Automatic annotation (TrEMBL):
Organism name: Chitinivorax tropicus
Record keywords, A-Z: Signal
UniProt keyword Signal, yes or no: yes
Signal peptide bounds: 1-23
Protein name listed in UniProt: X-X-X-Leu-X-X-Gly heptad repeat protein
Length: 493
């Protein structure tokens, strides 16, 4: 709610600023736009290729030729009240989590230019974790149809509600920009098990970018408290919690049996019965201790893998050398977090040559999973069954307790086995390892329009789920290479 209120407040201020600018009749109001009309075809019809985690479908299974993967339309209003105060509003229409193209407020921020080298922004702004974060959705500003998804898929957010401070330091031929930012962001991610929500709270980041002639170098780090939840994952971890409570009750029952057998052993009973009671007390105490350890193990699984306000970080390094006639660009990124969401490392290397109005280019990009894809899960109850007692009326109640504990252990272990199996399914679903080879050409047909043709060959490693794929169907072979053919027209106005 605070997040919405802050964005609404900044938005209202910008609207007021717009009115003032219009009232002044100045040219300090600029309305600009950008867009892409693109189509993608995939060589497989057993999975969908998409370019964002919030896209519910894509090219392949859902659409033989998909016009919604890359197509978008954006409008941006830049307002300047004076040399100090200005603002920007950007609205983008693109495929959303709900399969619509309903326009989304991507930016709404106010800027204070405190000095010629120091500026502050507040409101909704681009989340600056990548080298081309500010214009990643402006196809005309990029040499490719889309930024390499192996890198740009890792962070499921594109904007941040918060503030930043930007300071530029010029030293000789080197211009270095420092950007410190903080805030909060969230997004909806459709999955086959329902709509999930991801959120980053208490986000703090720092970027340093240096420009030395044609060379640009960038380093960035951001940390946040990350949450990724949905109906299926909530049910899954709640089942673990319910099982832990059930194991607690079983451990308490075993402890009661142990105490009862010890108490009964104090009575003047025949020696064989006393021996049986002693054995029962010993085995029941062992069962109680083992069940207690299992309950702790179950809870540790929830703490280890549930993505609920867990620490997460992202680090990125980038370099671009663009003397004009050609370019070479690379980024290396690393994502870590304390949950079942996979830790990843990704990078790409891309280059192109400008020949007249044509720019042929090539890119190699890769992502790999750093965290484990399997887990032993929570430990089952492994203690032997509690020893039975002689069938005499005086011990009938105690024997009933023994039967209840001994009968409950297999049921708990069976449920635990199913949950542990489900955990491994979730972990393996996070397998992100894949590589992509891209060849394409950009044709600048007009000063504000280009046409791009691009071929991608996608290869999923380790028979994984495929990071940029969803809606995988029965028979889908992740080890088979997937060819993607894209045609896009980018324009700005």
């Amino acid at each position: 709610m605070k997040q919405r209120l802050m964005v609404a407040a900044v938005g209202s201020a910008l609207v007021a600023l717009t009115s003032q600018v219009w009232a002044d009749g100045s040219d300090a109001f600029k309305l600009r736009g950008f867009g892409t009309v693109g189509v993608v075809h995939s060589s497989t019809d057993l999975a969908d290729y998409r370019t964002g985690l919030n896209q519910p479908n894509g090219a392949g299974y859902s659409h033989k030729y998909d016009f919604g993967v890359d197509s978008k339309l954006g409008l941006q209003a830049d307002m300047k009240a004076n040399d100090i105060l200005s603002g920007t509003i950007q609205v983008i229409s693109e495929r959303r989590y709900d399969k619509t193209f309903k326009p989304t407020l991507e930016w709404a921020n106010a800027k204070i230019q405190a000095t010629s080298d120091l500026a502050f922004h507040a409101g909704r702004m681009a989340l600056p974790v990548y080298m081309v974060s500010d214009y990643r959705k402006v196809g005309y500003a990029n040499p490719w149809v889309r930024p390499p998804t192996e890198v740009y898929f890792q962070v499921p957010f594109s904007h941040l509600d918060g503030a930043d401070a930007v300071y530029r330091l010029n030293t000789g031929d080197v211009s270095t920009t420092f950007q410190a930012y903080g805030g909060r962001t969230k997004n909806k991610i459709p999955t086959s098990a329902g709509m999930n929500e991801s959120e980053g709270r208490r986000t703090l980041g720092l970027n340093v970018t240096s420009e030395i002639g044609s060379l640009t170098l960038r380093a960035g780090y951001v940390r946040t408290r990350f949450t990724y939840q949905g109906p299926a994952t909530n049910t899954f971890f709640n089942s673990y919690r319910a099982l832990a409570n059930g194991v607690d009750k079983l451990a308490a029952g075993a402890a009661q049996v142990a105490a009862g057998a010890q108490s009964a052993g104090q009575q003047p009973l025949p020696a064989p019965i006393l021996t049986a009671l002693s054995n029962t007390a010993t085995s029941a105490a062992a069962a109680a201790a083992d069940a207690t350890a299992t309950a702790q193990s179950v809870r540790s699984i929830v703490e280890r893998y549930e993505a609920d306000n867990v620490p997460a970080s992202f680090v990125g390094f980038g370099a671009l050398y663009d003397p004009g006639g050609w370019f070479i660009q690379a980024e290396y990124t690393k994502r870590t977090n304390d949950s079942l969401v996979a830790d990843t490392t990704a990078w790409y290397l891309s280059g192109g040559v400008r020949v007249g109005k044509f720019t042929p280019y090539a890119t190699y990009s890769r992502i790999k999973t750093d965290s484990e894809l399997t887990s032993n899960g929570a430990s089952p109850i492994s203690a032997p069954a509690i020893s039975n007692l002689p069938a005499i009326p005086q011990l009938a109640a105690l024997q009933a307790g023994i039967d209840q504990v001994n009968g409950g252990v297999p049921q708990i272990n069976q449920s635990l086995g199913l949950l542990n199996g489900g955990l491994n399914v979730l972990l393996f679903a996070g397998s992100t390892a894949q590589r992509n080879i891209t060849l394409g050409v950009r044709w600048d047909v007009m000063k504000n329009m280009d046409v791009k043709m691009q071929w991608d060959q996608l290869k999923i490693d380790n028979k994984g789920a495929g990071y940029t794929l969803n809606n995988n169907q029965v028979g889908f072979d992740p080890g088979k290479k997937i060819n993607l053919f894209s045609l896009a027209v980018d324009f700005v106005f």
